[in-house]
Design goal:
Elements lengths: L1 E7 L5 E7 L11 E4 L13 H11 L4 E5 L15 H20 L4 E6 L1 H12 L3 E7 L7 H12 L2 H32 L11 H13 L3 E7 L11 H5 L9 E6 L9 H20 L7
């Protein structure tokens, strides 16, 4: 495995690190993996998650580029004005161009945690070069089974029921006072690239249909810390019953993991899961038929 610092994009203002396999480790026609920033974390990632992931993926044959979009980490902020989300997508496209120019890579897998998952979804929808996505703590929409699993056990405990009733009462009283303020805050923070807001369900449904029709493989990995949003494997399929994922959707739940994968053992497990999925989706299809 080899690593090299690169600058790219307009004016060479974007900074990233390419991790690439040795010649004998390379997988023919392997997709390039883009590891996107997560919130305020730059290309190192929370608890060095992006470093560990990039190096292990490269050792398994995949070229990887982890990088900072403009205004993050080592990449200086732009002087122009515009919508942060649009500029972030443009930076991700520049990263794909860079891997194509340097390594001849023409297809890609976008991978990200939290904010990175949101950006991976967005770039996949608008750029046909993205053939796979790894969403760590990505979009999640509740179903009736989700609510049963989350609140069912509490309903059997009288003390918890009373606590819930009192909490709901307090929330109703304060809602009218804080609702407008929270709405303004949400609208403001979602404009930046450090925060994201769950898109309307109908938009995501249409996005999924377009991605599946294009043959994009989707891996969602949720940690146990995200059980307040996603708590059983089939939740995604149940939330979108009209979408035929055609076997291109895989859901994994790491119940014991923290959202940011702070434990080394959880990081190792996660990377192994990603490698297994990549091999399943992109290596087997390259093997010659007998």
């Amino acid at each position: 495995m080899k690593e090299k610092v690169v600058t790219f994009g307009e004016g060479k203002q974007l900074v990233g690190i390419i991790s690439e396999p040795e010649q004998h480790e390379k997988i023919e026609n392997a997709p390039g993996v883009l590891i996107l920033h997560s919130g305020m974390h730059h290309h190192v990632g929370p608890f060095r998650l992006h470093v560990v992931t990039a190096r292990r993926l490269a050792a398994c044959g995949y070229p990887v580029l982890r990088f900072d979009v403009a205004g993050m980490g080592d990449s200086p902020a732009r002087r122009d004005t515009g919508y942060d989300a649009d500029r972030t997508i443009a930076d991700i496209k520049s990263a794909m161009d860079e891997l194509t120019d340097r390594k001849g890579t023409k297809r890609f897998v976008a991978m990200g945690l939290c904010t990175g998952a949101n950006n991976a979804h967005k770039v996949a929808v608008v750029d046909d070069r993205v053939e796979g996505c790894v969403f760590l703590g990505g979009y999640a929409y509740p179903t009736w089974q989700f609510y049963v699993r989350r609140y069912g056990p509490k309903a059997l405990n009288p003390k918890r029921v009373m606590s819930l009733v009192l909490r709901l009462g307090r929330n109703l009283i304060s809602k009218s006072e804080t609702g407008k303020k929270e709405a303004r805050t949400s609208a403001r923070t979602s404009d930046g690239f450090h925060w994201w807001v769950l898109p309307p369900k109908e938009k995501t449904r249409k996005d999924f249909m377009a991605l599946v029709a294009r043959g994009v493989n989707l891996l969602f990995v949720f940690s146990g810390a995200e059980s307040n949003r996603y708590n059983y494997t089939k939740q995604m399929e149940h939330a979108f019953p009209s979408v035929d994922f055609k076997g291109r959707l895989k859901i994994l739940i790491n119940k014991d993991a923290h959202h940011a994968y702070l434990m080394a053992s959880d990081r190792d497990k996660l990377v192994s899961q990603v490698i297994g999925w990549l091999n399943e989706c992109f290596v087997k299809q390259n093997m010659p038929e007998n």
